[in-house]
Fold each of these.
Amino acid sequence: MDRRLIPEVGSAEYKELESKPEKAYLKTVNSMLQTLLGVSLIEILSRHASDEVYLGQRASIEWTSDKAAVEVFENFGKKVFEVESRIIERNKDVNLKNRSGPVNVPYTLLLPSSTEGLTGRGIPNSISI
């Protein structure tokens, strides 16, 4: 069965939507296989490698010999670390109830660093897809 758009008013498909809404709705969503492929692709692309370098970090300290650039980058790295510390502290603040929501899962999406795997956190220094 091919996926299709929500039908326009007055069409034969719209009459089916009025008489059998569940059947008509199911024709508009992806098949189970397409959904599984999409979710799998997102999960694979969202995983962090064990050797991943994050925002404010470099894989090598010898990336440039320009002392001014190194100093600016080190200051940037410190600010990124401060942002991460602030996010973690805000997650602990019970007065900020919107930080975790009703399921009590802390906000982590913009935490700059991460561990290996699918973590819901970490901003890679660069990406390639």
Amino acid sequence: MGDVELSDGVITLSPLRPDDAEAHLAGEDEPMVRWLSGGRSTRSVVDAYIRHCQEQWDTGGSLRAFGIRVEPAGTLAGTVDLRSNVEGLGPGQMNVAYGIYPAWRGRGLATRAVLLACGYAATAGGRQAVIRVEPENSASVAVARRAGFAPAGHACGADGTRHDWYVRDLPFPPRA
């Protein structure tokens, strides 16, 4: 499994692991189901997903799923993932998706996680990060804007769901 660990001193991103399953199930609420998964998870579904994430790391697949861990204890506060094989994305574009568990929302953790994940994406050959979000998901839109993403139009999925696109070129320009 990937041994990647990214930190900004407040959070650390590291690959999801089997012992994250219980915390993930406990953190799943209605907004996470609505905006991310589309249905309630079971322990077996979460276990299978984490195994899939590990396989992606092991085989160099197109998914990089990270747990967002709050320092210093490393408590799982949510997830962020990068995917390069999403329908509609062009070469060098990486989709960024994230979810923060209810107890950790409102602390800027999603923005921190997106920025760390995008830094990793740049080192993995990504040229542009893309956040696709339903317009009604105002919290996710706010994260995209705080992380420096710009509106870039919209697209409708096969099920007719509209997603507004926010993009940011990689690597990030140096900070002044």
Amino acid sequence: MFHALSIAQFDVDTTFQLIRRAEALRAMPRHETRALLAGDIVATLFYEPSTRTRLSFEAAVYRLGGQVVSAENARENSSSKKGESLADVFRVVGCYADAIVIRHHRAEELDAAAPFSPVPVINAGAGSGEHPTQALLDAYTIWRELGRLNDLTVAVLGDLKYGRTVHSLLRLLAKMEGIRIRLFHPEPLGLPPELAAEMRDSGIPIEIAEDLEDAVRGADIVYQTRIQAERLQAEHEMCATDDYAIRRSHLAVLPEHARILHPLPRVGEIDPAIDPDDRAAYFRQAENGLYMRMALLDHMLRGELG
């Protein structure tokens, strides 16, 4: 059984098939999409807070004609509070649903428990590990905005140590051709050593920028992230964020074709005055998540790709 736990499971061909399926579902009349998963039930289990991921997954199920059973704040409001193992949760919830979408605070626990589920499991964000569906919708957004996923200079800013969206996106971009990565981050919040080693082994050119203006200058994609304050583990990781915030002045060195992405929520990393600029693509990015998650659910429950 296929469980979508890591972006490593998605090769270039599958990524583009999901993009094409997302585009097809986007254009399909509502009465047609609602027939695709009619009769199916998807369980959404969120052990950590979520707005976009949870609501877009649940909206995707409804748009496809399925139904949702949901546990929000499952860390406190489920039998997890009593000590139930995640493996047992999957065994039980898999009796009630045709697929499980889960956000969990421990990546290693999710990976170990998934094989016990009798139905497909989708990782909707696992601690500071990965967020594979975010990477897929990020790739979809880049493709929609620029028309390609190759020959790109991508500036990645912010918390690269705990930012799971960055971990999955970099692993996906490493599979594309002609990718150049530029990093800018607080000193204690660089890439985890194992991911840095993966990037070096992939042969992708990686540059460390000295300041934010150098980081975004001439970039095709700027991928901004927030500092994951809830995950910081040491006092030395606390840092001022002003030097990492995109201001209107930075647009002067950003090409007109470039796009600014952010997985959201933002907490000061992008000046709202930038929002009206065509290069600000983060709210379109959030919308794209609905269609990419529809495509993934359609694929995992019906085996359909475009």
